[in-house]
Amino acid sequence: MGKEIERKFLVDKAKWETFKKDLKAEKVQMIQAYIGRTALQTSPVRIKSKAGKESAYFTIKGNTKGITRSEFEYEIPVADAKAMIAEFCSKHIDKVRFTFDFQGTTWEVDEFTSPKAGLILAEVELKTENEEVEYPDFITQDVSTDPQYFNVNML
C-alpha cells in the first residue's frame, strides 16, 4: 500500500522570488481536478505540461491522519484525463510546480494561478512523520493539518 507523509508550508513570496532566481528546478504547469470526494478519500486527476510534453495521472488519496495518508497514483492517457475533467469536474486548479533539491531533500513549491491566484505553498514528502529536514528561508508557517490548504478544499 502506498503512503504519503507530507508537510505543507506557507511561503514568504519575496524570499521565494529571491531564492528561485538562481534555482535549477523542474518547472511544470499543472491542471488538477477532483472526480471524487468522500469523507474517506479524494480522487484527483492531474495533467502536467513540461516543455510542450503532457502527462496525466489519476490518484486515490485516503483520509489524512496527522500528516500521513494512503496514496495510489497511476499514469493514464492524457486524452482520458482531459475527458474525465470535462465530464466530471466543474472546477479545477491551475498552478505551476517547481521541484528541486534542498539540503538533500526534494521540495515542491506550487504557485497557484487559479482559483487562489497568488497563493504559494511548499511541500516536502518525508519517510516518517518525525523526520527532521532543513527548511529553506522562504518557509513561514506549517499548514500541514489546516484543511483550508488542502487542494481539494480550494475549489
Automatic annotation (TrEMBL):
Active site at 34
Q: Which residues form the CYTH domain?
A: 2-155
State the InterPro entries in the record: CYTH-like_dom_sf, CYTH_domain, NeuTTM/CthTTM-like
Q: What Gene3D superfamilies does its record include?
A: Hypothetical Protein Pfu-838710-001
This chain belongs to which protein, by name? Adenylate cyclase
Question: Which species is listed as the source?
Answer: Lishizhenia tianjinensis
